Amino acid sequence: MNDHPYLESFDPILSDVEAAKVLDSTPASMKQSRYTGQLFGRPAPKFIKMGRSAKYKLSTLLTFRDQFPEFQNTAEAHCAQEVK
Fold first, then answer.
1. Start-end of H helices in 1-84
2. What are the b/e assignments for 25-60, b being 16+ CB within 10 Å?
3. Residue 20 located in a structural domain
4. 6 domain-assigned
């Protein structure tokens, strides 16, 4: 089931450059994540191999991004790190 229902009928395929913008990363980091399997200390988002190019579904990138918590302030973020 798609976590983002508005993408049910339209799920764009993005290049490294576009994917990096969605995740506030760099194309080089996206490439490295395909090699290491890690991005931002988490399992990297899945990609699609199209010929020699690697592409990403927007829905996959949004799901990856949504796993990171949001905080009201740095104290809240610091407390969350101490709990781990």
1. 16-22, 27-36, 58-66, 74-83
2. beeeebeebbeeeebeeeebbebeeeeeeebbbbbb
3. yes
4. no
- Which domain range does residue 27 map to? 11-83
Angstrom distance (rounded) from CA 10 to CA 5: 10
Q: At 47, give phi and psi (nearest 5°).
A: -130, 165
Query: How many domains does the chain divide into?
Result: 1
Tens of pLDDT, residues 38-50: 999 999 999 999 9
pTM exceeds cut of 0.85: no
Count of CB atoms within 10 A of residue 24's CB?
A: 8
Residue 68 located in a structural domain: yes
**What six digits make up the tokens of 41?**
């200390």
